């Protein structure tokens, strides 16, 4: 990811995935990722429209194939605390993934692997965020990758029960349309199981 969320989720920085150049404290002047990125593009930055990148600064010009956060998921988990258990269940043919209240770093990689390998991409997925206090860059990278994977298979993902500080961070990073949030799991299921116009199956 290259739009790095601040620890409290109310500000963001832009990092070049190639050289690591960091432009910090963008929210006060730019408001949202969309506004910030349109200005950085004029400044020679290149890369994905999405805040998860990859992005490259004007000197580096060619973005890597993966953003730095997503690339880190492929590396071995460092010694220390292992991933927390992540539970998921099938409900009305939709996979519901329940996230714990706070995520340890290794859990992001575990979630990423789970979504890539274990959860069938042929199903819609709801991420139950009702216990989650805040969203961070790594979780956002996982969620956006999940959205892209689902979209490739003609499926959708959404969030349920996201707290105000979580949804505010999603709006700031201009991904609220990619990752729509519903008050609870039943509301999310209702949205997912109502096929979009022209795509009924
Ligand atoms: Zn660079």
From TrEMBL:
GO molecular function: anti-sigma factor antagonist activity
Stored SUPFAM superfamilies: SpoIIaa-like
CDD domains, alphabetized: STAS_anti-anti-sigma_factors (cd07043)
Residues covered by the STAS domain: 84-192
InterPro entries, alphabetized: MlaB-like_STAS, STAS_dom, STAS_dom_sf
Name of the protein in its database record: STAS domain-containing protein
